[in-house]
Design goal:
single chain, Rossmann fold, Glutamyl-tRNA Synthetase, domain 3, 10 helices, 13 strands
C-alpha cells in the first residue's frame, strides 16, 4: 500500500509574504493535491525575537486570499517546544551533539574562507572533542549544541523533485552545525525535521535558496531514525530589477496587493504562466491547475517578476474558459 502524499505550507511570520512565497506555495499545494494528498499548515514562529502576531494573521489571510486551503493545522512551532527538546535530548544521549562555546567571531578567525556555494565559513571543530556531558562543567558560559558532521566520508544525496540527483560532499556541509542553544531550545534545522516527521509530511517543496539546509536535515532524519520526505527546490522569483525579493519590500507583499484590490485569480493565472502551464496569463483558481500541474514544465532559472497592475481583470470569456470545471476539480480533490 502506498502512503498518502502529505505536503505542507510553512510560512515564517517574520514579515509579510511576497510573490515568491505565493509561487512556491502554489507549487507545493498543487503537487500534493494532484497526488490526491493532504496539505498541512505550519506557522514557523520558533524565533520569538522575530515572529510577529500580526504577521501570523496576515500569512493565514494571504493563503486564504490565494485560494490555497489545508487539511490540518495551523500548527505553531512556538507551542511544540517540548517535542524539539525531546529530540535534542535523544541526540545528546547518542553523543551526536556536543556543547560549543565558540562565538561567531571565534569561528571567523579560525575557519578558512568559504567557497561561493557555502553559507559561510565552515566550523573548524574547535570544541568537537567535548562530550555531551561536558555541558555540566561549563558553568554560566553560553553554548550551542552542535551536531557532529566531522568524520562522515560519504556524500549526502537526494533525488530532488525538480533538480534531479543532488550529492553534496561533507566538506561542503559547513562542518558541525548548530541544532540548539543553551536556554533557547532547538534550532530551526531540528524543529522542522521533528515537525515534518511527526506530521507525516512526505513532500517538502521550497525555494532553492534552502538547498544548503537539506543535507543537514537529512543527517538529522537519519540520526533520529525518521523517514525522510521527498525534497523539491524551485528557483526563486526576482523583482523587475533582477534582484531577489525581500519581505521588507512592501510593493510585492501579498497584503499590499490585497489592499490594492488585485483579484487573486489574476495572480494565480500569472503564477501558472510563470511555471509554463499556460501560454498566457488568465484568471483562474488554484483548483483549476490540479490536473494541469507539471513539475517538468517549471523553468530551471529564476522567474523575473513583471510590473504588477492591480486593475487587470481579464475578459469574461477568459474567465469562463479558465474557471470552467474549477468546482469539479475542487470536489475531486476533496474526495481524494
Amino acid at each position: 500500500m502506498i502512503d498518502q502524499t502529505v505536503g505542507r505550507l510553512a510560512p515564517s511570520p517574520t514579515g509579510g509574504l511576497h510573490l515568491g512565497h505565493a509561487r512556491t506555495f502554489l507549487i507545493a499545494w498543487l503537487s500534493a493535491r494532484q497526488a490526491g494528498g493532504r496539505v498541512v499548515l505550519r506557522i514557523e514562529d520558533l524565533d520569538a525575537t522575530r515572529a510577529r502576531a500580526e504577521a501570523i494573521d496576515s500569512a493565514v489571510a494571504d493563503l486564504e486570499w490565494l485560494g490555497l486551503d489545508w487539511d490540518d493545522g495551523p500548527f505553531y512551532q512556538s507551542r511544540r517546544t517540548d517535542l524539539y527538546d525531546n529530540a535534542l535530548s535523544r541526540l545528546r544521549d547518542a553523543e551526536l551533539v556536543y556543547p560549543c562555546t565558540c562565538t561567531r567571531a571565534d569561528i571567523l578567525r579560525a575557519a578558512s574562507a568559504p567557497h561561493a556555494e557555502d553559507e559561510g565559513p565552515a566550523y573548524p571543530g574547535t570544541c568537537a572533542d567535548r562530550s555531551a556531558a561536558d555541558a555540566a562543567t561549563l558553568g554560566d558560559r553560553p553554548f550551542a549544541w552542535r551536531f557532529r558532521v566531522s568524520g562522515r566520508t560519504e556524500p549526502v544525496a537526494w533525488d530532488d523533485l525538480f533538480l534531479g540527483r543532488i550529492s553534496i560532499d561533507p566538506p561542503r556541509l559547513g562542518g558541525d552545525f548548530v541544532v540548539g542553544r543553551q536556554g533557547a531550545g532547538a534550532s530551526y534545522q531540528l524543529a522542522v525535521v521533528v515537525d515534518d516527521s511527526q506530521m507525516g509530511v512526505t513532500q517538502v517543496i521550497r525555494g532553492d535558496d534552502l538547498i544548503p539546509s537539506t543535507p543537514r536535515q537529512i543527517l538529522l532524519y537519519e540520526a533520529l531514525h525518521h523517514a525522510q520526505p521527498q525534497f523539491g527546490h524551485v528557483p526563486l522569483v526576482l523583482g523587475p530589477d533582477g534582484r531577489r525579493l525581500a519581505k521588507r519590500d512592501g510593493s510585492i507583499k501579498l497584503a499590499t496587493l490585497r489592499d490594492q484590490g488585485l483579484d487573486p485569480r489574476d495572480l494565480i493565472g500569472l503564477l501558472a504562466h510563470s511555471c509554463g502551464w499556460t501560454d498566457h496569463p488568465a484568471p483562474s483558481s488554484p483548483y483549476h491547475w490540479i490536473t494541469r500541474y507539471s513539475p517538468s514544465s517549471i523553468p530551471a532559472t529564476p522567474w523575473v517578476l513583471p510590473e504588477m497592475r492591480t486593475n487587470h481583470r481579464g475578459t469574461e470569456a477568459q474567465r469562463r474558459q479558465v474557471e470552467g470545471g474549477g468546482e469539479e476539480e475542487k470536489e475531486k480533490a476533496r474526495e481524494g
